[in-house]
Amino acid sequence: MKQFAPAKINLYLHILGRRPDGFHELETLMAPISLGDTLEIDLIPSGIDFTCSDPALSDAQDNLAARAARLFLDEFKPATGVRLHLEKVVPIGAGLGGGSSDAAAVLLALRRLVGVKAGDAKLVELAARLGSDAPFFIQGRPAVCRGRGEIIEPVALAENFRGLLVHPGFGVSTPWAYKTYAQNPCLGEPGRSLAGVTLRNDLEPSAFSKYPWLPAVKAWFREQPETLDSLMSGSGSSVFALTRAEGDTVTLRRRFLAEFGESLFAAPFSVGLADAGQDSP
Fold it and tell me: Which residues are catalytic?
């Protein structure tokens, strides 16, 4: 079967302080988007057979999708193995939760394929062992996430947006971003209020201080007539611009590529319309 694994964007990301365990306390509004990876998942007699369209991600010991399959087999002990093929679309190290979404997609697909009677709460518990963003993707809908991201409150967006997501071709280390923030806590610049949500990302100052491409692109987006507002997602390095209409996104993409380079990753997306549980036989 095929399972879609949507990327996410953070419409806001507030850092509330340092936790006793050393991590940061967060409150963030995340939304799945229509851009994502695709996994082909089948049962085999035994073991885990993992392949990926990106050779750099083909290590089954390290890849979150393969680790999710191993965790599922260890937890429920079905008399089966798993064959996985990951068709990678979401950029790596982009603040889009690609690896976490892949892991959640595997757990959701295996629950259906194996017929394990485990509720979402159980899958969320397993997902939390794989990454802070992974529980969000089990729910598969917009949510305010708190704690380290594991406390999830689904919400209904007052409006669904379209947008353009761009990636510079390099990643930003999430641990580095939080460490840099801790050295100089500085809130992100509040953006515009859209459908009751004020865009803000408290990790922007950290990332912007080292990677000038990011603030330059955000500022350029905000100057364009099609853009409602722009923000970095997660710890970066992706930046998105929100628009109201598909035609606006197409026009914005064409102008962005002409300005910054035709070879850059620039993908249109819809906000709040993806479903982490989407699958097909």
Answer: 8, 133
